[in-house]
Amino acid sequence: MNAIEAAFPNLADSGYSVTSPSSKEYNCIAWAADDPVRWWWPDPYGLKYCPARAPRQLTLEAFIAAFAESGYVVCDSAELEAGFEKVAIYLGLDGTPKHAARQLSNGHWSSKLGQSEDIEHHTLEGLSGSAYGVSAQFLKRPIQTGKAKKSRRG
Question: Does the predicted TM-score (pTM) go above 0.70?
Answer without folding.
Answer: yes
